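Researcher: Go.
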Amino acid sequence: MITGAATNPDLTKPGWNTTYRVIANDNALGAALAHYAAKTLGLKQVAVVDDRTPYGQGIASVFMRDVEKLGVKVVAKEFTNDKATDFMAILTSLKAKKAQAIFYGGMYGQGGPMLRQMQQLGMNDVKFFGGDGICVPVLAEVAANAKTLETVVCADGGASIAKMPGGTAWKARYDAKYPGQFQVYSPYFYDGVMLLADAMKRANSWDPKVYIPFLQKSDYQGVSAHIQFESNGGLKNPSYTLSKFVDGKKVAIE
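Model: Structure:
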């Protein structure tokens, strides 16, 4: 299995030789957001909310651990669920605790309504952090382009298309063949398929017993990155991109 989207660090923790990841994990994303909150923005107190899913809890716990290490106080830890739409009680509590930012561990389906309700409560100066679950262009639509969308700082694993090796040219070919089908993880799954094919070619076999050792030792120039694996199947030297929303459009920060 080669994944271009599953980011929970526990996936590769057992070190099975059949599991590989071609994207940064939540440790990298949570740490990057924590560093941005503490060092770039100079925040002193934040709140953390998660949706109780393995993904949401995982990335929220990484952010909370790392931001506290950097001297930022976590003034509240709340949770909701991945079906909720009403966050007024949680947000009212966080407003009273004077959180300068909210980190949300979850998906855009809840992140959007949360941003709308933050605007209703006058929390327009409160930063809104999140991982790749909210870091999608459709967040602007789900948030109904609320003013608070301008406070979002989110993280994706990997570089932006423009900074990927050959990313722009690859996307042009992809869009020409599959109009309107591109999604944020498309380059990573493309690389995953081609990486598997490369290992089979080098092994001259499609028998897993034969090609897995070649996959483990991959040294492959993909669309998303130059791909090599750690001993547990995780990506060596993973990159990430922080983004914000400007005029309803997702724009890379770094």
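Model: DSSP finds eight helices and eleven strands in the chain.
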